[in-house]
Structure formats: structure tokens, C-alpha cells
């Protein structure tokens, strides 16, 4: 089965976004399965259309979230989304022209397309939001400024 597995290392720590990434991955896998099983053109085209629709919705929601929290690199991130949307559009066009693209090639494209973006771009949103929360706590006096080299109690507790 040429599926792409969800792993916890893909979680950015923002539930609404992680949930949508899992749904996107499920759609990608549904597509790969349909190709592997040589399902009809109608079936495959419907899945790709759903994948594109869901991608648009997801990018929209993620961008709304970045605006809401005032994520500083949201302009750059939005540009990456535009590139991804264009890439999947071309992918769809190519697929219709050459119907016999090997499933492994499709899998690799979709893996790069989705997984690399999550790991390289979306992960930064989660990290920034957590760092921002720390800064807020320190500013509000809810937390002491960490001394460099000091191991926070909760992290130290998990070690050996
Ligand atoms: Fe993103």
C-alpha cells in the first residue's frame, strides 16, 4: 500500500491545524489507493477535486489563524501556500494528460508537497505561538525568566 503515514512528529501542536493536516493526508492516501487499485477516471478525478477544495479551505483557515495570532512571517507563509496551490493545480492537469503516471511518482510528489510544508513551514507557527505564550507569561509575572543552562523541572523529570 503506497500510503503516507501520519506521525506524531508532524504535529505542530495547534489542534485545529493538526486535525486538518490529518484530513489532508487521509485524502492523499485515498487518492493513492484509487490509483494503485486502477479505479476509474471519475473516481480519481472526484478525489483530486476534493483534495484541491480541501487544500483551499485549509490554507484559508491556517492563514486566518496566522492573522489572528499576528504571526510575524504570515506574508511569506501565504506565498508558500500560493505556490503549493499552483503546484497541485499543475499536478491535476498533468494527471489528466498522462493517465499512466507511476503511483510511486505520485506518492513522492504528494509527500514532498504536504509533508515538507508541514515540517518546514507550519512547524514554525507552532513554535512561535509557544514562545509567544512564554513571553506573555514572563511579562505578566506568571513565570520567572529562565536562567541559561537551567533545566526546567517538567522537562528534567522525563529524563533517564
Ligand atoms: Fe501552511
UniProtKB/TrEMBL annotation:
Hemerythrin-like domain mapped to chain residues: 13-128
One Gene Ontology term of the molecular function aspect: oxygen carrier activity
Transmembrane segments: none
Gene3D superfamilies reported for this sequence: Hemerythrin-like (1.20.120.50)
Bias type Acidic residues, positions: 151-160
Keyword list, A-Z: Iron, Metal-binding, Oxygen transport, Transport
Name by which UniProt lists this protein: Bacteriohemerythrin
Organism: Pseudodesulfovibrio senegalensis
Amino acid at each position: 500500500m503506497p500510503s503516507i503515514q501520519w506521525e506524531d512528529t508532524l504535529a505542530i501542536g495547534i489542534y485545529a491545524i493538526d486535525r486538518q493536516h490529518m484530513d489532508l493526508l487521509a485524502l492523499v492516501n485515498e487518492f493513492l489507493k484509487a490509483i494503485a487499485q486502477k479505479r476509474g477516471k471519475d473516481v480519481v478525478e472526484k478525489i483530486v477535486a476534493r483534495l484541491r477544495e480541501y487544500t483551499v479551505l485549509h490554507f484559508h483557515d491556517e492563514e486566518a489563524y496566522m492573522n489572528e495570532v499576528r504571526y510575524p512571517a504570515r506574508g511569506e507563509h501565504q506565498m508558500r501556500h500560493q505556490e503549493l496551490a499552483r503546484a497541485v493545480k499543475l499536478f491535476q492537469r498533468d494527471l489528466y494528460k498522462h493517465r499512466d503516471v507511476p503511483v510511486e511518482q505520485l506518492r513522492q510528489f504528494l509527500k514532498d508537497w504536504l509533508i515538507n510544508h508541514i515540517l518546514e513551514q507550519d512547524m514554525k507557527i507552532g513554535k512561535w505561538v509557544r514562545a509567544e505564550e512564554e513571553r506573555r507569561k514572563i511579562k505578566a509575572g506568571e513565570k520567572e525568566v529562565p536562567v541559561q543552562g537551567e533545566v526546567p523541572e517538567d522537562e528534567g523529570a522525563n529524563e533517564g
